[in-house]
What we know:
- By secondary structure, the chain is of the alpha+beta class.
- It contains 8 helices and 13 strands.
Amino acid sequence: MSRSGEKSFIEWICHSLPPQPHSIDHGPGDDTAIFHSNAELPSLITTDLLMDGVHFHLDQTHARRVGYKAMAVNLSDIAAMGGTPSLCVVSIALPCTNGRALGEELMGGLMDLAREFEVGIAGGDTNSWNGPLVVNITLLGQASRKGPLLRSTAKPGDLLLVTGKLGGSLGGRHLDFKPRVRESRLLHDHYNLHAMIDVSDGLSTDLWHLLNASSCGACLKQDCIPIHDSVYEIQDARTPLEHALYDGEDFELLFTADPAEADRILQDQPLDIPITLIGQMTSEKEAQLMAPDGQTHSLKPQGWEHRLQ
């Protein structure tokens, strides 16, 4: 990995951090951190920063949709841990021109989703400047009584499952997706899951996040990967499968369970969205993509990553 990549920078931060206080059970490296407060259950905390021109284009959409997405991406992180969101703080850098109207519209979309998932808005910060719109939310939640789901606890032999369908999100779905908070809690409460991550950077990249954390490999079945209908309307050089593997911002749940439990989940289909078996964890510490004829090819992480110089 080049030193200019986001992943390399994050790895440098993780290796450079001072010793963590005892209240932090699980720091950088998962969808949320885990810490102990005075609550009975472990607490979760996550944060996401969204910028005009990177995560959305304000000249192509409404600020209300941006506010909705800003809350939704944080809720998706809590969902990936099998947790329940509780409260957040919101920080906004507003453009000087038309900033008040823009801020009200953005907060309207943000508050719509906060009400739906019973998230309290405890405060935050606002600034104005001559740059583009920037919004950051820090969201707190609680782990379930079974504890938080991690990326690092998948096992060789586990089956890999995913909710919903993948690919084509940048056609607009990335601004309006429904975070899988309720779906995650239902799965975590009723089944014995081993590991989970949300698909934000693309299936190939987030799979590798899970593999690296769990020191495992995986083999995906090419013809089993669920492809969103919107992908087939895209006319570019990528195949539908490549869109499903690499587009990102699907915000579905990728998770593992042992074969018997996975079979029970697949038979029950307990959600309002489909759950699909897409592969199996291995011990080889590499990712393979199996074609319908049985031939396998190396699967590299080619989803989204911020570029740094």
